[in-house]
Amino acid sequence: MGKLTRRAMIAGALAVPFTARAQEWPPGQMKLIVPFPAGGTLDAIARLVQPGLQQRLGTTIIIENRPGAAGSIGTAAVAKSPPDGRTWLFVFDTHATNPVMQPSLPFDSETDLEPVMLLGTAPNIIACQPSRPYQTLAELIAASKAKAGGFTYASAGTASLGHLTMLRLAKRSGGQWAHVAYKGGAPAVNDAIAGHVDMIIASSAVLNSQIEAKLLRPLAQTGATRHPTLPDVPTLVESGFPDLVATPWWALYAPGKTPKPMIERFHAEMSTVLREENVADKIKTLGLTIVASDPDYMRKFYTEQAQIWGQVVRDNGLREGG
C-alpha cells in the first residue's frame, strides 16, 4: 500500500467531521416547497441551492412547486407537515399580507411556522414593452390618464408588494391603471413581453434578464436607492414620490415546532451555500441582495412587514377573490 501523503491526510481529517455532520441529519428525502410556479425567482433560488445543500446535509432534496392563492396553498402544506427536518418552505413578500387577504387561512403564520432566515431583498421595477411610446414614468402616468379606461399592469399576485405599491402610486400620481394578478412572476413576465398588458411591476430578480435582453424597458425602481444592476433607472423617490419605497423579499421557513438545533443546522448550511461563489454570483445576477439573517431577525421583520402592508390591504379593501 502506498504512503499516505500530507495532502491526503489533511483531506481525510477535514472529511471526517463533515461526514459525521451529514450522518447526524434525519434520514429520508427532503422537500423544498416553492409555493409559486416553476420559472419564478423562488424556484430559481431553490434550484441554485439544491446541489450544495444535498452535499452538505448528505441527503436527497427535491423541489416541489405548489402554486396558488398567493403562495398560501404551498405554505399550508408545510404548516401541516411533521417538524422532522424533511420539509422546508420558501416564501415571497405575499406571506406577510396573506393573513389579511385570506382570513380563513388553515394555518397561523406565527405559531404553525418557524422562521429560518430572510434570504434576500431586491427592488421592484416598473417596466413596459419597448414598443410602447413612453420612455419615463412621468410619460407613462400621463399616457394612462389620456387613455380611455386607463392601462393594465401585471404583478405576481393580489396583495403582492408590487400590487400594493402600484395602488399607492396611483393615489399619489393620479395614474389610471387596472391590476391583472398572476400566480407568480414568470407568467406575468411572459404576458408583459407579449404586450397583453401595458406594463408590469416585478422584482429586479425577475426582470433583470429581460431588461438586459431589451425585451422590456425599465421606467422606475422602488428601492430607497438605485440598484447596482440598474444604475440608470431612477427610483420612485427621485421621480417625485418621496414616501414610496418598497422592497420585495424572500424568506425561508420550517414547520412549527421544528427543533431549534435542526433549524440552526439548516440555517448554517444554507448560509454557507448562499455564499459559495458560483451560487452568490448567480443570485447577484438575478439582482438579489443576499441577507441570510438569523431566525430572530426574520421573526421581527415579518411582524413589521405584516403591519405595514397589511394596513395597505385594509385601506384598499382588498380580499381574496376581490
TrEMBL record:
UniProt keyword terms in alphabetical order: Receptor, Signal
Signal peptide annotation: 1-22
Gene3D superfamilies: Bordetella uptake gene, domain 1, Periplasmic binding protein-like II
Database matches in Pfam families: TctC
InterPro entries: BUG, Bug_dom1
Keyword hit for Chaperone: no
Family: Belongs to the UPF0065 (bug) family.
Name assigned to this protein: Tripartite-type tricarboxylate transporter receptor subunit TctC
Source species of the chain: Bradyrhizobium stylosanthis
